Amino acid sequence: MYLRELHVDGLKLLRNFSLDFTRDGEPRMWTVLVGRNGLCKTSLLRAIALAASGRDLANELSTEQRQSFQDLRHEGGKMEIRAKFGFGEIGAGLGREFPPLSADLSPDYLGVRLSLSPGARSLDGRSWYFSNNSSEAPNNSAKDTGKVLEMEPATGSPLEDVRQSSLPHWFVAGYGVQRLLPGVATTKSPDDFVRVRLETLFDAGTLISTDFADHLAKRFGAKEADGFAGLLHHALLGDDKLLPKLTAFELRGQGGVSSTDRLINSHRFDVDTGPVALRLPATWLSHGYQATVAWLADLVGHVLWEARAAGRNGTIQPTEMEGLVLIDELDLHLHPAWQVGLITALKRTLPRMQFVVTTHSPMLLSGLEHDEIIVLDQDPETGDIIKKTYEQSPKLQTSGGLLERYFGVDELDPTQLTAQFQRFGFLANNPYRSDAEDQEMLRLLDALTEAGVAPEWAPVPRSSVPHEPQ
């Protein structure tokens, strides 16, 4: 499933906040949210995840956060999330089901509404189908006004049926900031895989990730574990290498771990460190490698597990994978040099996956189009979150330009060391500086020395003879 529209009202600082996730009438495959801490970037990801989950699963996922959802600035206010989802072509060809409709009906969209009333202890919600022509909607009750959703729910809630039955081709996964690789054979079988895919976005659960090799082998046979490794190899080490220094990996130990040595060495990765190549256990990789390998292996594993559980056989290519992926801080722990090409590589490797991610890094933005970047800011009068977009392509901007436009940083040195250094240079090279200016120069020299950037030249001596113009 693909996200097309989102409307949030009364969730923390989000008041009547809407986002469009389409381009030329089709789902936009990438949306990157940027903005200062505290501007509800993570809350937006969680709102999307809740809307895509259905009411019952949304209540399970939000147990810890639910009571902090409401906007405390407006006492007695109601929190509401509304979303519009569409569907991918490959899933349709593989027989996506639309309960409780008959097999010959295929709606274009799914509408979802979740709400939390003042004092309520759980979310209430409904979902409903509708089509491009509302008069032809299967439930004959939907109305779509485009930018903002104004749709009346019909009797029943089909998304509940989808999630309770774990139907395939309704894929959504979410990844929070705690995403390290698990130990081999330390995770549980993903029987409730719909919930497992989203738990870490809500600071719960652990990623299955590379441990899918063990679970696939146990449930479907060793061949499926090999298939998982092949898919992951294609994604990580194909033409668009997501991690430049990673050269190979091996996933062994399917069927269980019988010794400490086997536990450590079952999943190993070859890393090119320059003079030598090192073969390291997965959990010995740097946090930057782990954060990326962990969510990508988890994503590939879930796609393969869902396909096999649904009885689909044969090879699955990364270019065929459809669904919605939510990632908090995509750049987590990655060196800036590797961030630059990450989104471009993901676009080519997983072209049918829709990504909604957050970041604090300007280095990721060079791989995006201008409408794929949403800047979150705060209205100075109301305190509400507002959004901004810019027309100029980020591909045409320097790193300094990206910092200034999308992150509001017009100087790389927030301590004003650059300005202090320039002022010191001006005073130090002026032989006619006054007593006050000489004292200012000495104070600047002390500050620069303490910061470790003391100039390498000495001030020119002061002169009592003023310079006379010729």
Structural topology:
Layout: E1 2-9, E2 17-20, E3 22-23, E4 26-27, E5 30-34, H1 41-53, H2 55-61, E6 79-86, H3 89-93, E7 109-116, E8 124-130, H4 158-165, E9 172-175, H5 193-196, H6 212-220, H7 222-237, E10 246-251, H8 260-265, E11 267-272, E12 277-281, H9 287-309, E13 323-327, H10 336-339, H11 342-349, E14 353-358, E15 373-378, E16 385-388, H12 399-407, H13 417-428, H14 435-450
Parallel strand pairs: 5-14, 5-15, 9-13, 13-14
Antiparallel strand pairs: 1-2, 1-6, 3-4, 6-7, 7-8, 10-11, 11-12, 15-16
Helix pairs in contact: 1-2, 6-7, 6-9, 7-9, 13-14
What structural class is derived from the secondary structure elements? alpha/beta
Give the terminus-to-terminus CA distance. 78 Å
How many DSSP-defined strands?
16
Q: How much helix, percentage-wise, in residues?
A: 25-40%
Strand numbers in spatial order across the main sheet: 9-13-14-5-15-16
Report the portion of residues in β strands.
Answer: 15-25%
Helix/strand order: EEEEEHHEHEEHEHHHEHEEHEHHEEEHHH
User: Whole-number average pLDDT?
Assistant: 79
Major sheet attributes: 6 strands, mixed
Low-confidence stretches: 135-155, 253-265, 466-470
**Radius of gyration over C-alpha positions, nearest whole angstrom:** 27 Å
SS field, number of helical segments: 14
Shape: globular
